[in-house]
Amino acid sequence: MQITVLAGGVGGARFTRGLLAALPRDGHDGPDGPPSVTVVGNTGDDITLVGLRVCPDLDTLLYTLGGAVDEAQGWGRAEETTAVARELAALGVGPEWFTLGDRDLATHLARTRWLAQGLTLSQVTERLAARWGLPQQGVRLLPATDTPIETHVVVDDEEGGERALHFQEWWVRHQAALPAHRFTVAGLAQASAAPQVLDAIRSADLVLLPPSNPVVSIGIILGVPGVREALRGTRAPVVGVSPLLGGRPVRGHADACLRPLGVEVSASGVAGLYADFLDGWLVDTADDPATVDYPSRLRVRSLDLLMRDQEGAARLAGAALELGRELRVATAGRG
Fold first, then answer.
1. Do 209 and 203 form a contact (C-beta atoms < 8 A)?
2. Cα 165 to Cα 47: distance, rounded to the nearest angstrom
3. What pLDDT was estimated at residue 291?
4. DSSP-derived secondary structure letter, 268
5. Pairing label, strands 139-143, 36-41
6. Nearest-CA neighbor of 61 among 11, 25, 3?
7. Is the distance from CB of 128 to CB of 107 less than 8 angstroms?
8. What is the pLDDT of residue 260?
């Protein structure tokens, strides 16, 4: 069984870790052996800081699946120190609102060096994934694109006009408190899907959309040329998990991202963003699907979506797998 996951940062990483726990690993799932998982990670959050290329969502996936993440905050390295960041601040170098940990710096130094040597981001990510043992878990991590892209947020400036901030500054420094007019992604129009991304979608037995931000995580992946078309054309059922519980995000600021698009801040509003390819949709018990007029072709199930711990994430991923199994017969002739 080949499963492809389109993932952002913390929510996507925790869901994928739960997926690995929920999958059978005894080799009896099918004639080709145990399931394999391809994770397509968002790169719209990427940023260059103090001369280093930082890929927050890819790194969160690496550290979470590799067992090295800071569980309390959901990102960064466990038992991290910040001696270098403090020294840089004393020298007046780098933004103080984005702290790079000492252990985390090794990842960014290696990535920047390899990119400067001519490796693609896919090749760099493959090396980093090997460092964290992802292949041994049956996981292949791919960036959505090898083309450098960066998400920017257009907000009001102090003179009554508009200015664009890098997404990370808006998200981390301002906590999404500055009302956004729109989102733009530098480089996206010229980008192409990274090698193996489109094939991973087209050849999958199941495609999963974790509870990642639908605008600046999954939405950026969908904006990479060819990705949305591949989802429309795949024979695999596409099952998504709502990132909203009772109309509110569990973490992050998905509501602040949906409003500029004119999208209702609700599970059904998010489902509408995926309407052209979505087959199954998991919503929280606080969002009764009987009260919403979902398309008749969309199978909606309600359950407790809160991933309180790793067992909860595995339970949620297991529900997504079960819905996918139900849908496989119904979508077998599509494509």
1. no
2. 12
3. 86
4. H
5. parallel
6. 11
7. yes
8. 95
